[in-house]
Each structure stands twice: as structure tokens, then as C-alpha cells.
Amino acid sequence: MKTDELQKSSNSRISTIPKKNMSFEFENILLRPTYKPLTRNDFDMNVQDKWLEIKCINVPRRRSYHSSFIHKDTLYIFGGVDLKEGRISEMSSISLKFIDNIQWINSEVYGDIPEPLSDQAGTLVEDSYYMFGGQNTHEEVTNNLYVFNLNNSTWKMNTFCHNSIIPLSSHTCCYYQEANNLVIFGGYSKGLYSNKIFFYDVEQSIWTKYKDEVNHDIPEGRIKHTANVINNYMYIYGGQTIDGIFLSDMWKFNLTEMKWEQISFNNSSPDDIPTGKSGHTSIYNNTDNSLYIFGGKIGHAQERNDMWKFDLQTEKFHLVQDTLLEVDSDSKPSEISRNKRSNIIF
């Protein structure tokens, strides 16, 4: 398999793969439901990590549970919900190529424009963004699949037998390049929290459901978890159960052998493992073969902004940051190194 440099994954939990020749590499987008500014964290082992607020013009409406992705140095956000104004259908974009006088643009889009949605999930496949599910303005959970062509700014709703996949929200959507498949896991559907896996063949436009024929141990049904496809595995972490439990477990699904395996933390002390959480984000950094997990809720109305590193080789966690979100508003954009790896939150 040709391994991607950086991982495409989910999120509100969505990731992207930067190109090698980017003048400024952004590893991923981190979503925080209560923040409106665009904020960045630089990772450089020679300096102290800190958050920097990037000043922007024409900032979009505040929102949570939206989806976002980066394509060719441009950050896109779609949908989400505002507690006062309801769900949103607009798409906004911002160029990250030059960070002086950054300005948001309300993108002009065409075709089968999606209805206002929140809690959808999506992933990039070459020059297209695939977006599945979500909750609409009627509080209905959907199973529509939209594809946004980034070359002509056109949406298309893919047609398929809707009985082949259940409606879902608060799920994850990853791209498995080896098989040219979307991989959907978990989410809310019809009063239940799913632990099912669905595959979508991008070329054939066909859904298939994974069935465990050997009765292996499988993860508990959950929402607002994260998922990352790395090499031939899909890693899932955290989330919330139907009983309101915030999970701290991590599983990996072998995409070639089609079986689950829970990652054991038996050799780690409780202080070396993150508190169970949901609504967090996770990204893959290929330079140190690690997942970085940021933020989330550890209880009802208990948001966190800690950051953890999970080494995929040793399968152990390391606490990177556990301080209040300190935004350095005095730093000028020209002072920000373009050689550092960075995280973006909006």
C-alpha cells in the first residue's frame, strides 16, 4: 500500500493530507464547538508549544458540530449548528497560503446543495470531499451521501439503495486508499448508538456492512469518538455510550483481515492515560508515528483542552499539554515559522 503522508480522518473530526511542497504545512483541523477565532498550535521540539490566534477578516457565524477539511492550502468549513440560529448550510473557505490579512470567503457553490446539517462526517478523496449523514433542521438523522467537487465547486448527491446503510449522526468517516473505500463507524441511529462498520466503494457506489463471522470482541456502540485510518488499520478512540459514559478505550480494526483488536493499557498507570472523553479530535503525525488527541468533554459541561500523544509503536500515551487555552495575540503572523507542524482549530 502506498502510505499517505498524513491521515485523512473524521471529525467533526476530519483530517487532510498536505502536499510535500506546501509552503506551510497544516496537519489537521481541530474542531472546538465554543470557539469562533481561528487558532493554531505549533509543534517544535526546540521551543515551548503554545497556541497562537490567527487574526481573520469576515469570520463566519459561530457554530458547533460542523465539518471541515483542507485542500490545496485552503481550509473549508460546512454546516454545523448555532444554538440561537439553528443549523447552517453555508460553506466558507479561507486561504492558508499567506497568513497576513487572512480573509474568510462565503464560497459560491452549485449543484445538489445539501440541506442545513450538523453532526455529519466526511473525508477527502483526491479532489473531492465525501460527506455522509448528519442531522437536519427537522431533527431527522439522514443517510445521504454528498460529494463536493473542489475543481468546480459543485455538490452532487450520490444515488444508492438507502436500505443499504442506516441513517447516522455523530459518526466517523475515513478513507481507506488501498481499497478505495470510505469507512463509516459508530454514530447515532434510531435511538441506538452504533458499533457497526459500513464500507462504501467509491468506484462502484456500493455500500457493504461488515459482519463479524467469528464473534470477536468488538467496541461498544458510541458517538462523538474519533477514527483514523493509518496503513491497514482504523484506530478509534473514546466517545460516549448510550448510558452517558465517556470512554477512554482505544481499538484498531485490521482492514485486511477484517477483525477488531482492543489496545491494552495494562502497563500504564492511570495518570498516563487520558480521562474518558467525547467530542475530541485526533490527528496522525507521520514524522513520529503518533496520534495527537486534543480537547473534548470528560463529563456533561466539562470541556477540556488537554493534548495527548499516542505512540503507535509503543502503544502508550504521553501528555503533551494540560493547561488552559492561552492565545498569544501579540505574535505577528510573520513571526510564525512556516517550517513547523501545526494544528488548526475553528
Question: Would you kindly provide a written description of the structure presented here, covering whatever features stand out?
Answer:
The protein contains no helices and 32 strands. By secondary structure, the chain is mainly β. It has a single domain (10-345), classed as Neuraminidase. The strands form nine sheets. It has a five-stranded mixed sheet with strand order 6-12-11-8-7, with no helix packed on it.
- At CATH level 3, the topology is Neuraminidase
Number of domains: 1
Number of helices: 0
Strand order of the largest sheet: 6-12-11-8-7
Mean pLDDT across all amino acids = 81
Which structural class best describes the helix and strand composition?
Answer: mainly beta
The CATH class name reads: Mainly Beta
What is the architecture at the second tier of CATH? 6 Propeller
Number of strands: 32
Helix content: under 10%
Rounded to the nearest angstrom, the distance between the terminal CA atoms is 33 Å
Radius of gyration: 19 Å
- Low-pLDDT parts are 1-35, 44-48, 324-329, 331-340
How is the biggest beta sheet arranged?
Answer: 5 strands, mixed
Question: Can you say what the CATH homologous superfamily is?
Answer: Kelch-type beta propeller
| Percent of residues in beta strands | 35-45%
